[in-house]
Amino acid sequence: MVRLELALAEKRYANSQQTVLGTIRAQIPAGQFVALVGPSGTGKTTLLNMIAGLEASVAGSISVNDQPVIGRQPDCRLGYIFQQPRLLPWLTVFNNLQLTAPERSAGEIERMLERVGLHGKGEQYPRTLSGGMQKRVSIARAFLAQPELLLLDEPFVSLDLPTAEHLRGMLEALWLEHQPTVLFVTHDFDEAIRLADRVLFLSAAPGSLILDQPVELPRPRSDLDVAEWKTRLLGEYPGLLAGKVVASDSSLWE
Ligand SMILES: Nc1ncnc2c1ncn2[C@@H]1O[C@H](COP(=O)(O)OP(=O)(O)OP(=O)(O)O)[C@@H](O)[C@H]1O
């Protein structure tokens, strides 16, 4: 079970004067599914990289189960689905999966391939698969590791609609089964509402937290539930998806 605490003051890259992220404070309890939504370039990927321990310098802190993770990997089973699949080209699909989940049996790997719609593709090399298929291998790889902390960076973006919908259902089912703590970056607000317990909205660059919004809808959530909830929230905060929290009565929240 993994708790996450974000207490960021500022993030800049060493090779640049630009501030990428601003103030983000949030406590994420174990097992919560959190979506991170914000305009392009607001530092969402940077934030995931920091949580994964891939960034060394930052003002403020990030901790996983009270252990700081800046510049060091969290001490838990971590799954990270990157924007790009990042498969090892010299290994077959099966061996790519086995490398990151050596404790899984061949049968478990085959069943996971089947669940992501890649039955019989285990002996192929990544270059012989389409971009969407490679993405599905990277999703299978993350799920096979049975992560306690799962970071997803726009995982369904390049997939056709039925595949994306199937994989969203699978993600939700796996999350309900294993209850990892999830941080899910998406530009698709409907997807965020459909899946998340809570949505963190970031401002335009540099990304600061402008709204921390619980999604109190029972599961499974229908398209109608999602549409109604979205309309209500955007009615309240019309500039939200552009990274502005100005309430509809024009009183400034931040
Ligand atoms: N290694 C790096 N060195 C310097 N600047 C970087 C580096 N990586 C990202 N940036 C800059 O940090 C800013 C935020 O990038 P990031 O990819 O984190 O944003 P994002 O919100 O995930 O964007 P998108 O939604 O378009 O994927 C951008 O201006 C980007 O150019």
Automatic annotation (TrEMBL):
One of its GO terms (molecular function) is ATP hydrolysis activity. Residues 2-229 form the ABC transporter domain. Pfam families: ABC_tran. Keywords: ATP-binding, Nucleotide-binding, Transport. InterPro entries: AAA+_ATPase, ABC_transporter-like_ATP-bd, ABC_transporter-like_CS, ABC_transporter_ATP-bind, P-loop_NTPase. SUPFAM superfamilies: P-loop containing nucleoside triphosphate hydrolases. Belongs to the ABC transporter superfamily. This is ABC transporter ATP-binding protein. It comes from Parathalassolituus penaei.
